[in-house]
Structure formats: C-alpha cells, structure tokens
Automatic annotation (TrEMBL):
Keywords: Transferase. It comes from the Bacteria. The keyword Transferase applies. Belongs to the transferase hexapeptide repeat family. This is N-acetyltransferase. It holds the Pfam family Hexapep. It comes from Draconibacterium halophilum. One of its GO terms (molecular function) is transferase activity.
Length: 191
C-alpha cells in the first residue's frame, strides 16, 4: 500500500481516517475512522485519536495522549506527554452522556504541558501556554501563560514560547507586543 505518511507496524489506522503527508504515527497508537490529521504531524507512542477529531498541520502529540471526539487542534499545536482532554462535565459509568460531549478548541500555536488536564467546553487561545500539571477549567487568552489547579494566568508568552518581561519584547525573536485592554497583541511593523 502506497501512502504519504509513516505508521509503525503496531499502530492501528482505521479505514477512512484522513492523514496528511509527512505525518508520523508511532508505536501502539490508534487513529479512528473519521479522524482528520494534517500534514507533518507527529503522534507519539500510545496515542489515541478519536472519531471526528481534527488536527491541523504540524501538530505534535506526545506519548500517552488521548484526543477524544469534540477536540479540534489548529496548526502548530503541542500536546505534552500524558496530558488529558475531558469530554463530559459530569461523567457517570451508569449514565450515558454521549450526546452531551462538549467541544474543546486549541488554537494555532498553543502548547499544553505534560500531565495538564483540559476540561471540556473550553477554548485555548493562539500561542497560549498551559503549564505542566495545570487544570484548565475556563477559556485561556491568546499568548497567556497559565499554571496551577485550577489554572490561573501568571504572565504572557511570545509566539516563540518565551515568557515576556514588562517591556513585552520577546528576547529570542525581537517581536514586540502590546496590551490592548486585557489582551496581548503583536505589534505589526508598518514597513
């Protein structure tokens, strides 16, 4: 079978799954039939991608992550090892709530640290960073750095993932940012 992506021999790719070119799927991972995965993605060991999940291009899913129905990750998202997405607010084994799944949207460039938990019904803004072990219970603003249980904003990060100082200039890229009310924006060059 000629395919434009790589999958390890132990990976299970259900017929009908859409997988972009250059994507790599590693040991013991499972991609369900109606999942859509972009190009140049990496799914680490023991990753589960559920039905109707959408991953953009260049999404990195580290080991032991399950991405359930209702989750959408835009381009350039990083999902750290063993992080968790939920899909029901009040799960009970004896009560079927599949019709109550709440979506999660992870916007372009966002990073979720190892062992973090994202509660369903939330949106994580562009280039935000969720610290390792954090529990996100509400929306996260673009460029926000959040940490703790429950997660609270502790600062701002640049598109490169560098914590910004008071001058709001990324020391790595030189990009300049501006606070517009309670939100951070990139200052666009007018040249």
């Amino acid at each position: 079978m000629n395919k434009e992506y790589y999958s390890h021999e132990t990976a299970v790719i259900d017929e009908g799954a859409q997988i972009g070119s250059g994507t790599k799927i590693w040991h013991f991972s499972h991609v369900m039939r109606s999942a859509k995965i972009g190009s140049e993605c990496i799914l680490g060991q023991n990753v589960f991608i559920g039905n109707k999940v959408q991953l953009g291009n260049n999404v990195k899913v580290q080991n032991n992550v399950s991405v359930y129905e209702g989750v959408t990750c835009e381009d350039d998202v990083f999902l750290g090892p063993s992080m968790v997405f939920t899909n029901v607010i009040n799960p009970r084994s004896a009560v079927e709530r599949k019709e109550e799944f709440k979506p999660i949207l992870v916007k372009k460039g966002a990073t979720i640290g190892a062992n973090a938990t994202i509660i369903c019904g939330t949106t994580l803004g562009e280039y935000c960073m969720v610290g390792a072990g954090a529990v996100v219970t509400k929306d996260v603003k673009p460029f926000a750095l959040v940490a703790g249980v429950p997660a609270k904003q502790t600062g701002w990060v640049s598109r490169n993932g560098i914590v910004l100082g008071d001058d709001l200039i990324c020391p790595e890229s030189g990009e300049k940012y501006n606070l517009a009310g309670a939100n951070l924006e990139i200052i666009k060059n007018e040249s």
